[in-house]
Amino acid sequence: MTRIVIVDDDPMVRTGLRLILGGAPDLELAGEAGDGRQAVEVVRTVRPDVVLMDIRMPVQDGLVTTEQLLAEPNPPRVLVLTTFDADDLVLRALRLGASGFLLKDTPPPKMIEAVRAVARGEPALSPSVTYQVIAAATGARRPEAREELSRLTERELEVAIEVARGSSNAEIAERLHMSVATVKANISRIFAKLGTDNRVQVAMKVRDAGLA
């Protein structure tokens, strides 16, 4: 059972999300909050697996809240919700360690699957906006990103590029002719060398470097 907290200042949005997610037998709504400060309190109390986080909220926005939550011991995974196709705040949330983002009008089945994917430790990015958001930083960050990726071995870099392409561990194993266990080991080393917490951050560094 995946426990979820919904954070949005709009009661109608929270109601809609409750209706969408409440129908999935493997998802449990553990709590909700209308602003960032309340969200931190709720998350500390109910200890969810996934937080659906709005960005623009009164009192404390989703960016500050995401940073605070991810600094907690055993933090939840954060899935950012946005109304906009390309949003600098969403980009900043991803760099802080959010596991992905979705448009608020994402169809219910895809919303449910995104929550499940994030709970499994996989990224969840709206296809229509992924390249727009990531491209916002590409170019200016290219030298820095390439310097960071130079810490990887040739094999680790190949794996990182596959991660940026959205490949699963099984797909990477097949394409690079290695076992899934070896792929996982490589990804763990990539996280450590790049100082990242999830696949989204790795993908952004690879794209910043112009390698995918």
From TrEMBL:
Can the keyword Ligase be found in this entry's annotation? Answer: no
Write down which residues bear the modification named 4-aspartylphosphate: 54
Q: Which InterPro entries match?
A: CheY-like_superfamily, NreC/VraR/RcsB-like_REC, Sig_transdc_resp-reg_C-effctor, Sig_transdc_resp-reg_receiver, Tscrpt_reg_LuxR_C, WalR-like
Classify the source by domain of life: Bacteria
Q: Which GO terms describe its molecular function?
A: DNA binding
Q: Where is the HTH luxR-type domain?
A: 145-210
Question: What CDD domains does its record include?
Answer: LuxR_C_like (cd06170), REC_NarL-like (cd17535)
Domain spans labelled Response regulatory:
3-119
Gene3D superfamilies per the record? Answer: 3.40.50.2300
Q: Which GO terms describe its biological process?
A: phosphorelay signal transduction system; regulation of DNA-templated transcription
The record, for SUPFAM superfamilies, names:
C-terminal effector domain of the bipartite response regulators, CheY-like
Keywords, A to Z? DNA-binding, Phosphoprotein, Transcription, Transcription regulation
Q: Which PANTHER family match?
A: TRANSCRIPTIONAL REGULATORY PROTEIN NARL-RELATED, TWO-COMPONENT RESPONSE REGULATOR
**Name of protein:** LuxR family two component transcriptional regulator
Q: Which source organism?
A: Thermopolyspora flexuosa
